């Protein structure tokens, strides 16, 4: 019994690092950047980082849900592109904006549901299923536009990317809302508990009477829906939509989720971690630009910082 | 304007992909029906057949190039099979293999990568099919002719315009393309050397990559705007990036920046007309496509063709917008 | 005579795991060319003893002597070099390789260029090896094309290719048909003639009597008997295996009522269930005994909708019902505690409170939003009621002890207030005190009118807790006893199929 006290202390320290290691890494990075660049901690730059992180953040929320069930969604970037070009072309045809937004979001949810159905009911591997969805969505986006970007959207649509609510840009407001709503679902609802339990132990979840199929369907539909939402913000910001939008976004989203401490094995993780993960990636991109780091070094620096962040809490696991 | 042959080829590529995911494809019945309705046209002819392998068709530049090639093919009465490598050198290799096994008379290739294309070109050499490279050169194999704009000259053109527009002094930002690509390298070299030599008072305060991508151009330039309180001019190594940068400047309400792009895509022309973009270096992709087909036909007819055929460049400003 | 040459001697072997004395001073002597039967209940220490022999585990005390020389067996590889091979219950062969590749896996003959395999020689050696064993299997075909029995033969051949003097077979017949068993036995006789010693572990007494020369019995980690097989009869052997008095451990209070809560009729599913029928009454504890693989668990899973049925009817309180999923079973008031709590029962990464509440979320939420006050009250009430030892209801379940975890799973199912409670091995791997608590709890529930179906491999538990006992053998109910009529040997006889042979 002598060791109980010291053991407890050790455990607490470990748990502290495991839970907050990523936060510490994040603040270390911010501290370092504010020391080397006087521009980093300015209001405009903070808004910049938040705005740029909002798109990846929104996608990463959906990705967190999927990964918590021990799945993965590689189709987010392509679903974003397909919904974005469809949305843009509907806008150009002069349909009412609210209707277009609803249609675009619904399309995203439907595309996600298709992956969800294949994973849940046909028991296909998520990685293969969503890889298929990724290729098909991208292909459809290209075919739909003939490879050309769709430009000059109605100016009333700009608010979604460029507008602001008081001093806060709309993309940040939307992302904040999505994070809060996602956090609420995960921590306060039956569905959230079912998502965690399914990722932790699918056999036990099924034997506990949880309808696993519905839960899986939901997470993929949500991921598609949020990809569509991110796509709308992106085209609002760019004032145009290209079928090539969002390529590689799946990696940024997965990186944010994993850096945020969510286990790829499922059942473990939270959206607070994902938020920090997305911000870490955003700050990193921002910092590299502020410091005018050569393009040839960018990848190396990014990889090192992310590896360091992961090590911070993997080391104590 | 959309060409049926092209449609058919792209769609068939898509179908190949879909085969891998049969189940998924089945669930998208709508897609499949769309596809089958488009895929009926297959090129059949006894006339000389040329294969054209493009690195990507998601970039309007290459779509225009294809249009130019197709028009020339029509006038000179040859059949053109167009294929899209989707920026994937593996796909490019299989595209070229397909063309070889279809026994086309010549292959025009716009490589995804100067090195990765070499084995495919060697295969065509072995099959005695002449190869012409377009826009991007190959680092090996026997090539009848290379047809391209001179990107170094283009960078020089942009530097001269921007230097004069800023009266020889000021602070300039350069947005670079994908690191390691020859286009990014050549345009950069042309721009940088000209700036250094002819406009010593112009300072290049930031060089950052935005991967030829509009969304990245936007966020990278947002960041540069916060880092640099004074910016007089921007040269982006393609129009996509410059359009993103303009969007960022507008959102940040920063004015007085002279933007110069490269490629003269439709959006850029619109931006020039609207006074947002000062100039863009115009490659002439349609001419490039036309010259490609022309050169191939000449070579097939036994004429000698030049090893390098430069395609003239053109600086588009408000005064000479098409 | 060569037969009497001692091949292996294990002396004074003890081994303890945290909280359990798995083996206590066990002695074992194996002669050259002898077939030794090793029997005992689940958990008696047979596997531990064999794992020590084959270097998977190390004993705390004791000496192992091979052909008169004391040895120290560090790891399985070393055991193989010393000529000791084991054939495990679960086959460890690789289905996508050929028979020959499997036999010589990791020891392929090489060509002069060392990293290239001499395939021709490999298949030649395999063929020669099979010839010696009277096996007619082509070494070139893929293992996946063979039947389970043939794969077993390949496994045996692989074990012998190490030039083994001693071969341990752990339940080699559990998946074989009678015909295949015959083949295996003739192979065993061939080996015996070549002077190879065999340790044969089996639950099937009938086989023990057919094949072994001598039998030793383990119970609770202690050697309780050793005798030539000719000097024992099945009843004596069973007595040795299970004989212990545990009357006080299983206090019996409940009295079954007459009302039928659950009836199943003619449940069928492939080889697992060949037509099982029984009734379960309100307030009754029905014990379901039988060996591992007899189909006990399949009965439970079928009733709970976890596996689809091919045929059969399920009646709940006099009404015929269709149960296609656990959800439906739950809606009819059935709870099922699965045998493997970690793999099938627990959410190890989630807190205790969520683990208990998860089946009952409809009651603990409003419009899908969790009412945490209710959830915590439920969890706390079960922590008190089941005396769950935990620092807090928010403790992550992974950090709790095995017995405590089992109580958590039990609480999860009790939270539903079931009419029918199916318990599959409810006390496996649990310390004596917690075990008694769970038994008391079962009695309490039965008193309240819950109908309990308890599956257990531990006969004293079945006898002590049940009002009535069913015994299963190969997918069928092979015996039914009232509490007062049942004895361990009667049950064991039914469970091993011995009752049919007289």
From TrEMBL, chain A:
MF (Gene Ontology): transmembrane transporter activity
Membrane topology of this protein: Multi-pass membrane protein
Entry keywords, A to Z: Cell inner membrane, Cell membrane, Membrane, Transmembrane, Transmembrane helix, Transport
CDD domains: TM_PBP1_transp_AraH_like (cd06579)
Residue ranges of the TM segments: 20-37, 58-91, 97-119, 124-144, 164-186, 215-235, 271-288, 295-316
Signal sequence interval, chain numbering: none
InterPro entries (UniProt xref): ABC_transp_permease (IPR001851)
Cellular component aspect of the GO annotation: plasma membrane
Superkingdom of the source species: Bacteria
Location in the cell: Cell membrane
Record protein name field: Ribose ABC transporter permease
Naturally occurring in which organism (per UniProt): Candidatus Cryosericum septentrionale
Organism classification: Bacteria, Pseudomonadati, Caldisericota/Cryosericota group, Candidatus Cryosericota, Candidatus Cryosericia
UniProtKB/TrEMBL annotation, chain C:
Protein's recorded name: Sugar ABC transporter ATP-binding protein
Organism: Candidatus Cryosericum septentrionale
Range of residues in the leader sequence: none
A Gene Ontology molecular function term of the record: ATP binding
Keywords of this entry: ATP-binding, Cell membrane, Membrane, Nucleotide-binding, Repeat, Sugar transport, Translocase, Transport
InterPro entries: AAA+_ATPase (IPR003593), ABC_carbohydrate_import_ATPase (IPR050107), ABC_transporter-like_ATP-bd (IPR003439), P-loop_NTPase (IPR027417)
GO cellular component terms, semicolon-separated: plasma membrane
Domain ABC transporter: 8-245, 256-499
The keyword Translocase appears for this protein: yes
Membrane-traversing stretches: none
Topology with respect to the bilayer: Peripheral membrane protein
Any Pfam family matching the protein: ABC_tran
Coiled-coil annotated spans: none
Highest taxon in the source lineage: Bacteria
Chief subcellular location: membrane
Subcellular location, record wording: Cell membrane
Protein's UniProt keywords contain ATP-binding: yes
């Amino acid at each position: 019994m002598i060791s109980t006290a010291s053991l407890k202390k050790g455990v607490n320290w470990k748990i502290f690092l495991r839970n907050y290691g990523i936060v510490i890494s994040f603040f270390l990075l911010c501290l370092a950047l504010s020391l080397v660049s006087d521009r980093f901690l300015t209001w405009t730059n903070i808004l910049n980082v938040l705005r740029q992180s909002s798109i990846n953040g929104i996608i990463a929320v959906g990705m967190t849900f999927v990964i918590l069930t021990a799945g993965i969604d590689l189709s987010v970037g392509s679903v974003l592109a397909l919904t974005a070009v469809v949305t843009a072309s509907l806008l150009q045809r002069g349909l009412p904006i609210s209707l277009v937004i609803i249609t675009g979001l619904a399309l995203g949810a439907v595309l996600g549901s298709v992956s969800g159905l294949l994973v849940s009911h046909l028991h296909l591997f998520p990685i293969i299923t969503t890889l298929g969805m990724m290729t098909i969505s991208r292909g459809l986006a290209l075919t739909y536009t003939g490879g050309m970007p769709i430009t000059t959207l109605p100016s009333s649509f700009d608010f979604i990317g460029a507008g602001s609510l008081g001093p806060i840009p709309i993309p940040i407001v939307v992302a904040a809302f999505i994070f809060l709503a996602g956090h609420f679902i995960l921590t306060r609802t039956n569905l959230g508990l079912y998502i965690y339990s399914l990722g932790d132990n699918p056999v036990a979840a099924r034997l506990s009477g949880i309808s696993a199929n519905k839960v899986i369907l939901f997470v993929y539909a949500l991921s598609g829906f949020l990809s569509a939402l991110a796509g709308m913000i992106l085209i609002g910001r760019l004032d145009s939509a290209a079928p090539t939008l969002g390529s590689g976004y799946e990696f940024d989203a997965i990186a944010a989720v994993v850096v945020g401490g969510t286990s790829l094995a499922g059942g473990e993780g939270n959206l607070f971690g994902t938020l920090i993960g997305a911000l870490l990636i955003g700050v990193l991109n921002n910092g590299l630009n502020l410091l005018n780091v050569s393009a040839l070094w960018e990848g190396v620096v990014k990889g090192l910082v992310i590896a360091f962040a992961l090590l911070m809490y993997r080391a104590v696991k | 304007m959309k060409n049926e042959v092209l449609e058919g080829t792209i769609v068939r590529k898509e179908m190949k992909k879909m085969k891998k995911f049969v189940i998924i494809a089945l669930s998208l019945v709508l897609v499949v029906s769309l596809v089958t309705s488009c895929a009926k046209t297959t090129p059949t002819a006894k006339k000389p057949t040329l294969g054209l392998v493009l690195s990507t068709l998601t970039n309007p530049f290459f779509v225009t190039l294809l249009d130019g090639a197709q028009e020339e093919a029509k006038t000179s009465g040859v059949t053109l099979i167009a294929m899209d490598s989707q920026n994937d050198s593996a796909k490019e290799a299989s595209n070229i293999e397909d063309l070889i096994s279809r026994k086309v008379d010549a292959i025009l290739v716009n490589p995804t990568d100067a090195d990765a294309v070499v084995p495919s070109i060697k295969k065509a050499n072995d099959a005695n099919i002449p190869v012409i490279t377009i826009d991007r050169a190959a680092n090996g194999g026997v090539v009848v002719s290379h047809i391209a704009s001179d990107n170094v000259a283009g960078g020089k053109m942009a530097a001269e315009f921007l230097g004069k527009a800023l009266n020889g002094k000021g602070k300039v930002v350069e947005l670079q393309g994908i690191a390691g690509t020859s286009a990014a390298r050549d345009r950069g070299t042309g721009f940088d050397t000209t700036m250094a030599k002819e406009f010593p008072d112009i300072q290049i305060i930031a060089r950052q990559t935005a991967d030829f991508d509009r969304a990245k151009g936007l966020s990278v330039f947002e960041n540069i705007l916060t880092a640099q309180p004074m910016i007089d001019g921007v040269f982006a190594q393609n129009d996509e990036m410059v359009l993103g940068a303009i969007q960022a400047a507008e959102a940040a309400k920063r004015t007085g920046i002279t933007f110069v792009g490269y490629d003269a895509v439709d959006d850029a022309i619109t931006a020039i007309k609207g006074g947002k973009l000062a100039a863009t270096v115009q490659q002439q992709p349609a001419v490039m496509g036309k010259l490609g087909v022309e050169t191939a036909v000449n070579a097939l007819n036994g004429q000698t063709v030049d090893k390098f055929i430069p395609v003239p460049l053109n600086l588009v400003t408000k005064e000479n917008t098409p | 005579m060569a037969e009497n040459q001692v091949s292996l001697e294990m002396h004074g072997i003890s081994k303890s795991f945290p909280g359990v004395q798995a083996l206590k001073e066990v002695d074992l002597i194996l002669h050259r060319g002898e077939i030794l039967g090793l029997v005992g209940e689940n958990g008696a220490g047979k596997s531990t003893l064999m794992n020590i022999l084959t270097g998977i585990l190390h004993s705390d005390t004791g000496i192992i002597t091979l052909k008169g020389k004391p040895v120290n067996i560090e790891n399985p590889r070393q055991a193989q070099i010393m000529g000791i091979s084991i054939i495990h219950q679960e086959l460890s062969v690789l289905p996508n390789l050929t028979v020959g590749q499997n036999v010589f896996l990791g020891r392929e003959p090489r060509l002069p260029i060392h990293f290239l395999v001499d395939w021709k020689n490999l298949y030649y050696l395999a063929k020669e090896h099979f010839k010696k064993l009277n096996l007619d299997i082509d070494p070139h075909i893929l293992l996946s094309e063979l039947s389970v029995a043939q794969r077993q033969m390949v496994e045996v051949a692989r074990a012998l290719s190490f030039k083994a003097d001693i071969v341990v077979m752990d339940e080699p017949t559990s998946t074989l048909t009678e015909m295949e068993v015959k083949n295996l036995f003739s192979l065993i006789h061939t080996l015996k003639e070549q002077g190879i010693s065999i340790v044969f572990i089996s639950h099937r007494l009938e086989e023990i009597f057919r094949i072994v020369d001598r039998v030793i019995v383990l119970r609770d980690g202690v050697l309780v008997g050793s005798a030539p097989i000719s000097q024992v009869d099945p009843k004596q052997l069973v007595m040795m295996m299970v004989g212990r008095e545990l009357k006080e451990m299983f206090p019996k209070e409940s009295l079954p009522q007459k009302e039928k809560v659950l009836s199943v009729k003619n449940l069928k599913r492939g080889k697992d269930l060949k037509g099982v029928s029984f009734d379960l009454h309100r307030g009754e504890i029905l014990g379901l005994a039988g060996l591992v693989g007899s189909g006990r668990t399949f009965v439970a899973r079928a009733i709970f909708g976890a596996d689809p049925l091919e045929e059969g009817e399920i009646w709940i309180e006099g009404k015929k019902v269709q149960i296609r999923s656990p959800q439906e079973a739950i809606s009819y008031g059935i709870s099922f505690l699965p045998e493997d709590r970690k793999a099938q029962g627990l959410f190890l990464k989630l807190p205790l409170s969520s683990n208990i509440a998860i089946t009952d979320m409809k009651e603990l939420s409003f419009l899908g939003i969790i009412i945490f006050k209710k959830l915590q009250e439920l969890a706390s009430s079960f922590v008190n009621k089941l005396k769950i030892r935990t620092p807090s209801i928010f403790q992550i379940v992974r950090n709790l002890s095995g017995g405590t975890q089992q109580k958590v799973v039990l609480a999860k199912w009790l939270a539903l207030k079931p009419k029918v409670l199916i318990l599959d091995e409810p006390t496996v791997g649990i310390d004596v005190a917690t075990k008694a608590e769970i038994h008391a709890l079962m009695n309490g529930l039965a008193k309240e009118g819950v109908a309990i179906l308890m599956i257990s491999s531990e006969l004293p538990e079945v006898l002590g807790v049940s009002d009535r006992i069913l015994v299963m053998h190969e997918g069928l109910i092979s015996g039914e006893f009232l509490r007062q009529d049942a004895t361990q040997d009667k049950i064991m006889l039914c469970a091993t199929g011995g009752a049919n042979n007289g």
